[in-house]
């Protein structure tokens, strides 16, 4: 990374990997990162970390590095093995948006669990929130609309369709936890 900051490096890498081969995925990643920036008040010292993970969360879709076809695992391995990225960013990418459940559907749960530890639950929740309130085009949406869109796009009986339906209760719970934290911080900053 050199003199470049973590988020600057992350944006540059994500753009290089996604913008040309997958412009819609790049737009989504930018939207997720924008959402992460909006959570700065609840993230404290981890704001930059979450924004970097947000812009990189889908880097594993890049045709240049897709190996298993499971983007959280491919992205995390790439960031670890080829980029020497921050370990916490790698863990967030590896486990973003209930990835263990999808890994299970794909027969890759043991690999994901063994290779990459989970990051702190509040950061995992925050990344779920950002990913699941951002459309494929990078605009804001509700978690319900996002989940419906994913099922419709992939089909309810596909690996992704089955996984996202299984993950829905945890996704909604994570979004509620983040919204509660935001509300608490906002209430605490209101003048008396």
Quick take:
The chain is mostly helical and 192 residues long.
Question: How would you portray this structure in words?
Answer:
InterPro entries: HD/PDEase_dom (IPR003607), HD_domain (IPR006674), HDIG_dom (IPR006675). It holds the Pfam family HD. It comes from Streptomyces virens. Residues 25-106 form the HD domain. This is HDIG domain-containing protein. The protein is built from 11 helices and no strands. The radius of gyration is 16 Å and the shape is globular. Helix content is 68%, strand content 0%. The longest helix is centred in the last third of the chain and has 30 residues, at 159-188. The chain is mainly α and 192 residues long.
């Amino acid at each position: 990374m050199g003199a470049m900051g973590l988020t600057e490096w992350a944006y540059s890498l994500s753009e290089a990997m996604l913008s040309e081969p997958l412009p819609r995925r790049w737009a989504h990643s930018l939207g997720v990162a924008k959402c992460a920036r909006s959570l700065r008040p609840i993230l404290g010292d981890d704001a930059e970390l979450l924004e970097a993970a947000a812009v990189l969360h889908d880097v594993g879709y890049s045709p240049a590095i897709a190996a298993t076809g499971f983007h959280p695992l491919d992205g995390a391995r790439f960031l670890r093995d080829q980029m020497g990225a921050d370990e916490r960013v790698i863990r967030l990418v590896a486990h973003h948006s209930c990835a263990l459940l999808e890994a299970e559907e794909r027969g890759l749960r043991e690999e994901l669990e063994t290779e990459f530890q989970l990051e702190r639950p509040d950061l995992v929740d925050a990344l779920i929130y950002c990913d699941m309130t951002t459309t494929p085009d990078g605009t804001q949406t509700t978690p319900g609309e996002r989940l419906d869109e994913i099922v419709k796009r992939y089909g309810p009986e596909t690996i992704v369709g089955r996984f996202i339906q299984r993950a829905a209760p945890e996704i909604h719970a994570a979004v509620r936890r983040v919204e509660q934290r935001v509300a608490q911080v906002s209430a605490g900053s209101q003048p008396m």
